[in-house]
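ingest -> validate -> predict -> emit
validate: passed (alphabet ok, no gaps, 288 aa)
predict: started
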Amino acid sequence: VERENVQKRTFTRWVNLHLEKCNPPLEVKDLFADIQDGKILMALLEVLSGRNLLQEYKSSSHRIFRLNNIAKALKFLEDSNVKLVSIDAAEIADGNPSLVLGLIWNIILFFQIKELTGNLSRNSPSSSLSPGSGGTDSDSSFPPTPTAERSLAVAVKDQRKAIRTLLAWVQRKTRKYGVAVQDFAGSWRSGMAFLAVIKAIDPSLVDMKQALEDSMRENLEKAFSIAHEALHIPRLLEPEDIMVDTPDEQSIVTYVAQFLEHFPELEAVCLFPLPLIQKAYIRICRHH
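emit:
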């Protein structure tokens, strides 16, 4: 229940970030209730994709029209190659919590996480992950399975690959400050990982020595406040969301991806490895 509540809060904030761009702006108050007529879903996809979906929206209290609106949105996602397994219009129209959260997570993953990490994969040098951060990206084919099972397996593999790529980016940014990030769960409880990512963006914003003396709550609050006020990173999380035995991975991934989205140029420093710079410097010195 707590995990569901954290996801609901995080995903609601993420959805509202994009609905602010609508004309006029829209806002979700209760994700499970507000999604049931299809308008919020269509508006969100319209903002994310740049395609016009709301022109097909039919406002009505009758269930058949609500189902039709949602079905059009789901069809758009399927046509966009978003893998939706066991998510149908009726469950969304009924506000089924787990399936609504699953649907929003798939949208976040496809329109933000995979796009951002895809850019990383194309533009950055390979970087091995630390032990425990996941399996390999093997392209071996799956054994013959029913279509639904195979679709689920492919979707899960794509998810893990995107998350591993984001994790590798975080590790490259935080290891210089002595912070070991192994996952998107327990590694973030102390707040040090969030602070290290911020420091990688602007070293003047964070004192890592002071953070070692501060409490978990103080570090988390400091990280979220600095990120919002100084870096304009939307505050999708609260300290209480992370100060649990097992923080929610999807919520942390959604939040951390905002740093990469706002500061993609940060990766540029990795395009010229230090050894190459050193060799170039030596050649210049010899030349002169």
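The first helix runs from residue 2 to 19.
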